[in-house]
UniProtKB/TrEMBL annotation, chain A:
<dbReference type="InterPro" id="IPR014730">
    <property type="entry name" value="ETF_a/b_N"/>
</dbReference>
<dbReference type="InterPro" id="IPR014729">
    <property type="entry name" value="Rossmann-like_a/b/a_fold"/>
</dbReference>
<dbReference type="InterPro" id="IPR033948">
    <property type="entry name" value="ETF_beta_N"/>
</dbReference>
<comment type="function">
    <text>The electron transfer flavoprotein serves as a specific electron acceptor for other dehydrogenases. It transfers the electrons to the main respiratory chain via ETF-ubiquinone oxidoreductase (ETF dehydrogenase).</text>
</comment>
<dbReference type="InterPro" id="IPR012255">
    <property type="entry name" value="ETF_b"/>
</dbReference>
<protein>
    <recommendedName>
        <fullName>Electron transfer flavoprotein subunit beta</fullName>
    </recommendedName>
</protein>
<keyword id="KW-0249">Electron transport</keyword>
<dbReference type="Pfam" id="PF01012">
    <property type="entry name" value="ETF"/>
</dbReference>
<comment type="similarity">
    <text>Belongs to the ETF beta-subunit/FixA family.</text>
</comment>
Automatic annotation (TrEMBL), chain B:
<dbReference type="InterPro" id="IPR013786">
    <property type="entry name" value="AcylCoA_DH/ox_N"/>
</dbReference>
<keyword id="KW-0285">Flavoprotein</keyword>
<protein>
    <submittedName>
        <fullName>Acyl-CoA dehydrogenase</fullName>
    </submittedName>
</protein>
<dbReference type="InterPro" id="IPR037069">
    <property type="entry name" value="AcylCoA_DH/ox_N_sf"/>
</dbReference>
<dbReference type="Pfam" id="PF00441">
    <property type="entry name" value="Acyl-CoA_dh_1"/>
</dbReference>
<dbReference type="Pfam" id="PF02770">
    <property type="entry name" value="Acyl-CoA_dh_M"/>
</dbReference>
<dbReference type="InterPro" id="IPR036250">
    <property type="entry name" value="AcylCo_DH-like_C"/>
</dbReference>
<dbReference type="InterPro" id="IPR009100">
    <property type="entry name" value="AcylCoA_DH/oxidase_NM_dom_sf"/>
</dbReference>
<comment type="similarity">
    <text>Belongs to the acyl-CoA dehydrogenase family.</text>
</comment>
Length: 249, 433
């Protein structure tokens, strides 16, 4: 079975994000970039499916500038078989991404599309769902467990107050949550081998998708700095403050 | 008084404007102008002249072509190197750093450490592809990057991880087919290999060029005797690569850890404590005919230089760890109502660590790049070793100092870094050769 994994290049989760001086956007100059952590979980799950003998080929796709190849290579080093980069310098919104992925899905005909539930840059949590709507494939979002069973996949979803397991007919879309797995480290030999795995580049035009933005970013502001705390001299004052000022008791 | 000085300056300028020297180099007119306008104005004139000259240059039709980037002194890592660096760093951060404190206190490697780190596949990395490994070429630069990133997690644990790799690298580089077939498959097995290079000897002013360990040819192979110090792995190593004098040259011998006459005795040191260092005594150990590594073309100097670069790279990692630890500390730690980094004495020390560390890295990378290109690199490796020995100590001690009283305690890792970093100046002839 073929598995398609979508990955995105985002600011490394360790980096403290800065906002541009004119508040127009996040400052990306000289910032370390990495694969979105949820996408890493999706890659790991695909590799595990392959190790179990369920998946036969893992195709990894990314959309973005040429440098997004780095993230595809990382996925190849983790165990994916081949990569596709849809190269564009344009700003992308979830609907465009979903349309582009639909193009890849039609071409590749995967049985399972694995993707992160959201990316840590814009936190939209929309692309998987939109791809489901566009392709008509069933979707299992926020997966914390994925079990392929014949021509079905059982996806345990993390929902408010508990877990919910859905059985989806293949082909299906699964978006990964944090607790699905713990991604491995790419071994050094696999990093070297990744160089020789095929990586094709295509463009939105090749897929017949026009990249246009229906959203405009108005303003980006950093969260307000936390004001300094105060010291109280007795437990009584503390309780009083918690009750009357903070109103948490 | 001030007037007098200006007068003297002007006098000099006047004298200069009339000199042969000025005439010869067509400096007369500007110099006259200088003398005329007085010192301050004169400097403005010079500034304008330089600016004019520059402007003229850019109009010149024979302007220099755009520089090509091909000849650029480019230190950008390749895509693979960057990925290796990132992977090893995250392993160092998430796994190695957390084990470092206890490993140092217990003076032994954490139970499953060597097994766990096989996830990174460093063992495969040293064995050529043709033998089932993953090494595509020998790359001292990539090795330096790996050593640095692992040592960022912990110096001792990085050394324990890479000592067996260094043995494999030497066998790959200098060993004959028989030796490769005999010793390298061990690296492809499921269990970690414990092996180490043993050069250091417990002699005053030890010089690796003048070894006292000696080997002789026998009918069945070789016999070797000598004493080696700072040998890791608590006597559990399956093989040692021992440097010894043979036929008036320095050579390496592969010595099985369990050969009769091989004795290991614990000798804990100031640093490298997690690796359980000790003294290795070889008493007329009988070795087979394949024990001598390499043929007559074996280059002991290059072997030592590569080893030194390896130590340097480990030191760079630990120094970087110290710097990364210090910067937030000095910005957060307050004294006299403000962060201590507001004091120049503190800020300059931190800045110097950053500058020195970068120079260490540049020198090591340069030497490694020359080695990788197959060019002579002895001088560069030597200079890198001297700089790293000296500055590693300094950075270690300054890291302790900048943490103040805290630095002296075991609550912070600075004292461990200091002790480990001290090793560079003490081994393989230290910094005095």
């Amino acid at each position: 079975m073929k598995v398609l994994v979508a990955v995105k290049r985002v600011i490394d989760y360790n980096v403290k994000v800065r906002v541009k001086a004119d508040n127009s956007d996040v400052d990306l100059t000289n910032v370390k970039m990495a694969m979105n952590p949820f996408c890493e979980i999706a890659v790991e799950e695909a590799v595990r499916l392959k190790e179990k003998g369920i998946a036969s080929e893992i195709v990894v796709v990314s959309i973005g500038p040429k440098v997004a190849q780095e993230q595809i290579r990382t996925a190849l080093a983790l165990g994916a078989d081949r990569g596709i980069l849809i190269e564009t310098e344009e700003k992308l919104e979830p609907l465009t991404v979903a349309k582009l992925l639909k193009g890849v899905v039609e071409k590749e005909q995967p049985q399972i599309v694995l993707m992160g539930k959201q990316t840590i840059d814009s936190d939209n949590n929309q692309t998987g769902q939109m791809l489901g709507a566009l392709t008509g494939m069933p979707q299992g979002t926020f997966a914390s467990e994925v079990a392929v069973d014949g021509d079905k996949v059982n996806v345990t979803r993390e929902i408010d107050g508990g877990l919910r397991t859905v059985a989806l007919n293949l082909p299906a879309i699964v978006t990964t949550d944090l607790r699905l797995n713990e991604p491995r480290y790419a071994s050094l030999p696999n990093i070297m081998k990744a160089k020789r795995k095929p990586l094709d580049t295509t463009t939105p035009a090749d897929l017949g998708v026009e990249v246009k933005s229906t959203l405009s970013l108005v303003k980006v502001t950093p969260p307000a700095e936390r004001s300094a705390g105060i010291k109280v001299d007795s437990v009584a004052t503390l309780v009083d403050k918690l009750k009357n000022d903070a109103k948490v008791l | 008084m001030a007037k007098d000085i200006q007068g003297l300056g002007l006098g000099l300028a006047v004298r200069f404007s009339g000199s042969e020297f000025a005439k010869k180099y067509k400096l007369r007119r500007p110099a006259e102008k200088l003398a005329y306008a007085g010192t301050k104005k004169g400097f403005e004139v010079i500034g304008q002249m330089v600016a004019k000259k520059k402007a003229k240059k850019s109009e010149d039709p024979k302007m220099l072509p755009e520089p090509s980037t091909a000849g650029l002194f480019d230190l950008t890592l390749s895509e693979e190197q960057q990925m290796i660096k990132d992977t090893v760093r995250s392993y160092a951060e998430e796994v190695v750093r957390g084990l470092a404190h206890d490993a140092n206190e217990d003076m032994k490697l954490p139970e499953t450490y060597l097994q766990d780190i096989m996830d990174l596949g460093l063992n495969y990395f040293s064995v050529p592809e043709s033998m089932g490994g993953a090494a595509q070429s020998y790359s001292p630069t990539t090795n330096a990057i790996i050593a640095e990133e692992l040592a960022w997690g912990d110096f001792s644990l990085a050394y324990a991880t890479l000592a067996p790799v260094a043995v494999a690298n030497a066998i790959v580089k200098w060993g004959n087919q028989k030796q490769k077939e005999k010793y390298l498959p061990e690296y492809l097995a499921e269990t970690p290999v414990k092996a180490a290079i043993a050069v250091q000897e417990p002699a005053p002013l030890f010089d690796p060029a003048k070894l006292s360990a000696k080997a002789k040819k026998t009918k069945a192979g070789y016999t070797i005797s000598g004493v080696k110090s700072l040998v890791p792995f608590g006597g559990e190593a399956s093989m040692y690569l021992v440097a010894a004098r043979y036929k008036r040259r320095n050579r390496l011998f592969i010595v099985p850890g369990d050969a009769p006459g091989v004795q290991w005795q614990a000798a804990p040191a100031m640093g490298l404590r997690a690796t359980a260092t000790g003294t290795l005594t070889l008493d007329k150990v009988l070795l087979g005919p394949d024990a001598l590594l390499g043929d007559d073309s074996f280059n002991f100097e290059a072997f030592m230089d590569l080893g030194q670069l390896h130590w340097c790279a480990l030191a760079i990692g630990a120094c970087q760890a110290a710097l990364d630890y210090l910067i937030p500390y000095v910005n957060e730690r307050e004294a006299f109502g403000e962060p201590i980094s507001h004091r120049q004495a503190v800020a300059f020390m931190v800045a110097n660590i950053g500058i020195e560390l970068e120079s260490m890295r540049l020198m090591v990378w340069r030497a490694a790049a020359l080695a990788e290109a197959g060019k002579p690199f002895h001088r560069e490796a030597y200079l890198a070793h001297i700089l790293c020995s000296e500055k590693a100590m300094e950075i270690g001690t300054n890291a302790v100092q900048l943490l103040g009283g805290h630095g002296f305690t075991k609550e912070h890792p600075a004292e461990r870094w200091y002790r480990d970093l001290r090793v560079l100046a003490c081994i393989n002839g230290g910094m005095h050769l």
